[in-house]
Design brief:
The protein is α/β, with parallel strands linked by helices and 155 residues long. It has a single domain, classed as Alpha/beta knot, CATH 3.40.1280.10. The protein has five helices and five strands; from the N terminus they run βαβαβαβαβα. β3, α3 and β4 form a beta-alpha-beta unit. α1 runs parallel beside α5. The radius of gyration is 15 Å and the shape is globular. The two termini are 24 Å apart.
Length: 155
Amino acid sequence: MRLKFLWPGKTRSPEIKGLQDFYAARIGALASLEIVETREARGIDERHAGRIKELEARGLEKHLEDVYIICLLDEGKTMTSREFSSFLRGRAADAGKPPAFVVGGFLGLADRIVERADLRLSLSPMTFSHELCRVILLEQAYRALTIIRGRHYAK
C-alpha cells in the first residue's frame, strides 16, 4: 500500500514534529509512505486569505496527479477507525490511484483543491490546528494499517 500526505510548510512545533516523525516511522514499517511539504505562503497578512490559499494551492497541485485526492475539512465525511481501515483496504485494491491526503495550511485549502477531491474527510467536528491535524491523521493511518494487518494496537 502506498500513502501520500501533503501539506504546505514544515511543522514548526518540535513536540508536534516529534509525534509526526514517530507515526511516519511506524507507518513506513507497514506501507510505502511519502510526506510532501510544499511551499507555505509566508509574510502575507491574513487579511489576504485568498492570496495565501492560492499560493499554497499551486504547490499542492504539483503533487496531485494520478492519486485519489482526500481533502481534510471540518465539514467532510466522518469515519470510525474501523471504517477508515476498511476504506484504506479498498483503496489499496486500486493500485493505479493511491490515496493522497491533503491538509491545508492555517487558513485551510483553496476551493479549487477541495473541488478536485475524490473524498472530503473530517477527523472530527471540532477544529484542530493544521499542525495537530497532521499528527492525528498520521496516527489514524497507522491505526488503520495495524487493523488491516491484524496487529494489536493499544487503545
